[in-house]
Design goal:
With 313 residues, the chain is of the alpha/beta class. It contains nine helices and 15 strands. The protein has a seven-stranded mixed β-sheet with strand order 5-2-1-6-7-8-9. Strands 10, 11, 12, 13, 14 and 15 form a six-stranded antiparallel β-sheet that branches. Strands 3-4 form a two-stranded antiparallel ribbon. Helix 1 packs parallel to helix 6. The longest helix is centred in the middle third of the chain and has 25 residues. The chain is elongated. The chain starts with a strand and ends in a 14-residue tail after the last helix.
């Protein structure tokens, strides 16, 4: 514990919370920066970020700049010795990067230089990676391009979703930062430049990334579904209505002349043709309804045999 070190923390989602709580326990967190509140749903009710909730609970000064590149004076006024960012969501200006004695340190949910950007966890699963991890890095001017101090790798299980991998890497990030902090403060940390030729980018998920393309392979569809679970959730269209798909399993390999057609109804779900065989939807959410096992949807369908031959679009 070193309460003489003044830290400003910058983060927004649940992923950031374990890192923030570790810092509060071990250092003097003099300010917290989070994204502005945003309206959610049809009601327009303003959401509060998980990081903001911690700030309010711990009675730590909170800043929510709309554009941090223009609104950073309050942060510098806190005279931080170090700034730590973790899934904050805005590019940090040079005026902030150059200020702290011990630099600006970022906790990033990938094994840099792979998966720079705002959606490294989603993209790692969608792209079928076998491993992921956390990188502790000194922030640079570019997107996640700073020098690496420490990394730790974990396997991505076939059963992992974006949500489960978020949880694992969130805890890992907190532990790895705690392990790395003493070397940053005593000047013994190693700073390893990233290999630019190995960099890949994982930009934020766009609406077009959410729609299932049945011209893809079974494995690609399976990875897309679990890579978007539990947010924003993959979807397809049936009879002109949106159906979210939360979970699936890979069916048998088979050649089909048409993709996206319902070819059979299984005990646990709906079997659909894809580029190289069958994908079975096992957990779905029909438009206007709650998430449910696909078997419940089938059991509640007036004449489920009518589904056979219908095409998801």
């Amino acid at each position: 514990m070193n309460k003489e070190i003044r830290v400003v923390f910058m983060g927004t989602p649940d992923f950031s919370v374990p890192v923030l709580e570790m810092l509060i326990e071990n250092y003097e967190v003099v300010g917290i920066v989070s994204q502005p509140d945003k309206p959610i749903g049809r009601s327009g009710k303003m959401s509060t970020s998980p990081v903001k909730e911690v700030a309010l609970r711990e009675n730590i000064p909170l800043f929510q700049p709309v554009k941090i590149r223009k609104e950073y004076e309050e942060i510098l006024n806190k005279k931080p010795d170090m700034i730590v960012t973790c899934a904050y969501g805005q590019i940090i200006p040079k005026e902030i990067l150059d200020y702290p004695k011990y630099g600006c340190i970022n906790v990033h949910a990938s094994l840099l230089p792979k998966h720079r950007g705002g959606a490294p966890i989603h993209r790692a699963i969608i792209e079928g990676d076998s491993t992921s991890g956390v990188t502790i890095m000194k922030m640079g001017i570019g997107m996640d391009d700073g020098d690496i101090m420490k990394q730790k790798e974990i396997p991505i299980l076939d059963s992992d979703t974006a949500e489960s991998l978020f949880d694992k890497l969130s805890v890992l990030g907190s532990e790895l930062l705690k392990e790395t902090m003493p070397s940053i403060l005593d000047g013994t940390a190693n700073y390893i430049p990233q290999k630019e030729e190995e960099a890949t980018f994982s930009y934020n998920i766009k609406p077009e990334d959410e729609k299932i393309d049945f011209m893809k392979t079974r494995r690609e569809i399976y990875n897309q579904i679990r890579g978007l679970n539990s947010f924003p959730v993959a979807y397809t269209m049936l009879d002109g209505k949106r159906m979210k798909v939360w979970e699936s399993r890979i069916g048998i390999e088979r050649n089909y002349s048409e993709y996206g057609r319902i070819v059979s109804l299984e005990k646990d779900g709906i079997c659909i043709s894809s580029k190289d065989g069958e994908i079975i939807f096992t957990m779905i959410q029909p438009e206007g309804k709650k998430k449910m096992p696909a078997r419940d949807f089938l059991n509640g369908y007036p004449n489920k045999e009518e589904l056979l031959g219908k095409v998801f679009k």
